[in-house]
Amino acid sequence: MSLLVVGLSHRSAPVSVLERASLSTDAQLKLLQDTVAAEPAAEAAVLATCNRIELYADVDKFHAGVAELSTLLAQHSGVGLEELTPYLYVHYEDRAVHHFFSVACGLDSMVVGEGQILGQIKDALARAQELHTAGRLLNDLFQQALRVGKRAHSETGIDRAGQSLVTFGLEQLAAGGDVQDWARGKRALVIGAGSMSSLAAATLARAGVAEVVVANRTLDRAERLAQILVEADRTGVSARAVPMESVPAELTRADVAVSCTGATGLVLTAEAVATAVEGRTGLPAAFDAEALSTDDVRPLPPTSVGTDEGCPLDLAAVQQAPVQSTSGFSVLGEAAVAGMDAATLEQHAAWVDNATVDRRLAARRSPEADAELITALAAMAATVGRIPERRGPESVPTVARPQPVLFLLDLAMPRDVDAAAHRLAGVRLVDIESLAEASADAPMAADVDQVRRIVADEVAAFGAAQRAAHITPTVVALRAMAAEVVAGEIARLDGRLPGLDDKHRAEITQTVKRVVDKLLHAPTVRVKQLAAEPGGAGYADALRTLFDLDPESVAAVSRAEDSTEKNAENRGPA
Q1: DSSP secondary structure string, 30-61?
Q2: Of 50, 105, 260, 311, which residue is the catalytic one?
Q3: Distance separating alpha carbons of residues 275 and 249, to the nearest angstrom
Q4: Cβ distance 127 to 29 under 8 Å?
Q5: CB hemisphere CA count around 153 (13 angstroms)
Q6: What is the pLDDT of residue 144?
Q7: By C-alpha distance, which of 431, 463, 452, 397 is closest to 137?
Q8: pLDDT over 60 (residue 569)
Q9: Which of 126, 145, 120, 141 is nearest to 50 (CA)?
Q10: DSSP code at position 388
């Protein structure tokens, strides 16, 4: 059997796909059950976070395993296999171990070095153990990953390379400023009471917010979190719990809101956010350039004569016409119009509309049409004092958006906050998608290289241990067979020497056992060493062939060991 992982993450798929493919807790449990029920897989575990969905399995066939795991992910995520496949990645055997250990150390996180992933790995293992879908391989893998992650954080400064997703999100809300300066005195609303929401509430409390309001569908969980915040040392924050129905009213009072729930639909619509902003400011929250004051709009500069390239009019001749203003290009008065043919004026109109100027128009125009057009233009000039002039395209002035009065941090997948809130004036929204964009340019600390070396060492050690463990049932079966041979020979000796007393019989038995043990010691120790090396998996087969071991005897030893391990898991830690 071999380790296989099939998954997608923020590195392989856009947030929109991750959002649609996210798995609820029930969907994860069903996925685990269906995976171990599938033919290629004997064990399974699911690691599902806000920015990754990965299915780990112990399979006996690579290609069949990839096909089966990919199909199961598509079925349980609700995203079609054809649509999902381009975003999936596959890791096998040592590469799968390397990937998982990198994930555990935070090297593959959206925010490099964040430590929340260790708790998520622990939860994933607990789910697999509860459903008995994790056997020896995945139990060893996940336990080792937790140890590797802890080692990376304790032996290096990987924590300096990045922060938790919550801290990183708050830094984005603060727009590069100091988070504590930004948060001091603000009123915070935390929607949800899970692990991520609890971390957000604690982080905001430490940052110096004046108040934290916790909203949750289960009110007692919100009350417990609020109580923990109040009792925390050195924060001095005021905290209270409210039901989810109170979110609209609390949003009007809040300066910052963090949402991370397991809801399948939106928790905060754009309309709800706009209503909250209007409730705070008394002004519409929609960003509308036409609603800006005239002081915010820079007037267009005059167009100087002769600077417009490609104009079909003879600008030098136009300058000789009677004008009432020299501020820009204008053809004024009936006299100026009368000196031009209609085709030229029509081409000028086409030019200012960015249309193609066709200088062959004059050849196709009739005198009657020219006279009609000239008369119309002259009448307009007599009424408004000039022929209407259109300018070429000019850059639109950049108008600064008003300072935000409501900060939103959406850490849920799928999203809790309507993405349309990005376009609301007075709102700054940071969500998983914007965090992914911001983290792409985040600097990497020098400690990352040290963590990579730790991962490489741990992958080699894990592989050696697994290869050595793979041959253990064969060695045990060999020693059991040797013990049976010794017992059989002692029994035959009893038949030949019926008068042998117990003392001499015991001495002979011990002597035979010592001989057998000494003969088997060096080969079994050496075969374990060789099996631990890369490519050593074949030594177990060689041992079974050389000693003509019954494959079923070896399998029985493996099943017995697995049963012992499961019983130990069910008893829990001592």
Answers
A1: HHHHHHHHSTTEEEEEEEEETTEEEEEEEES-
A2: 50
A3: 10
A4: yes
A5: 21
A6: 96
A7: 463
A8: no
A9: 120
A10: -
pLDDT digits (tens, 9 = 90+) for 236-264: 889 999 999 999 999 999 999 999 988 88
The answer on pLDDT for 290 being more than 60 is no
Q: Given a cut of 80, is residue 162 above it in pLDDT?
A: no
The three-state (H, E, C) secondary structure of 273-294, written as one string: HHHHHHHHHCCCCECCHHHCCH
C-beta of residue 10 within 8 angstroms of C-beta of residue 413: no
Which of 535, 253, 232, 277 has its CA nearest to residue 427? 277
Query: In sequence order, what are the residues at sequence separation of 6 or more whose Cβ sits closer than 8 angstroms to the Cβ of residue 217?
Result: 243, 244, 261
Q: Token pair for residue 152?
A: 């990376």
Would you state the pLDDT for residue 320? 47
| Residues 303 and 309: beta-carbon distance below 8 Å | no
Residue 202, helix vs strand vs coil: helix
Angle at 291 between CA 290 and CA 295, to 5 degrees: 90
Give the angle subtended at the CA of 72 by the CAs of 68 and 74, to the nearest 5°: 120
The DSSP bridge pattern shows strands 41-49 and 406-410 to be unpaired
**Side by side, which strands form the sheet with 41-49?**
41-49, 52-59, 2-9, 89-92
Give CA–CA dist 133/56, Å, rounded.
Answer: 11
Q: How many residues does the chain have?
A: 574
Residue linked to tokens 């350039």? 289
CA–CA distance from 452 to each of 60, 113, 277, 397, 459 (Å)?
A: 29, 12, 46, 48, 10
Q: Quick: pLDDT tens for 491-520.
A: 888 888 888 888 888 899 999 899 988 888
Asked if residue 544 lies in contact with residue 470, where contact means CB atoms within 8 angstroms, the answer is no
Catalytic annotation present for 50: yes
User: Residue 111 corresponds to which amino acid?
Assistant: V
Q: In whole angstroms, give the CA distance from residue 251 to residue 187.
A: 10
The Cα–Cα gap between 416 and 169 comes to 15
Q: What is the pLDDT of residues 76-112, one digit of tens each?
A: 998 999 999 999 999 999 999 999 999 999 888 877 7
Q: What's the predicted TM-score (pTM) here?
A: 0.60
In tens, the pLDDT along 28-67 reads 999 999 999 988 899 999 999 888 999 999 998 899 999 9
Contact 350, 361 (CB under 8 A): no
Most trustworthy range by pLDDT among 16-25, 291-300, 348-357, 361-370: 16-25
306-311: long-range contacts, CB 8 A cutoff, minimum separation 24: 308/392, 310/351, 310/357, 311/348, 311/351
Class of residue 275 by CB neighbours under 10 A (exposed 0-12, middle 13-18, buried 19+): middle
Residue 350, amino acid:
A
574, exposed or middle or buried, with CB in 10 Å at 0-12, 13-18, 19+? exposed
Q: Which helix (H) or strand (E) holds 470?
A: helix 447-496
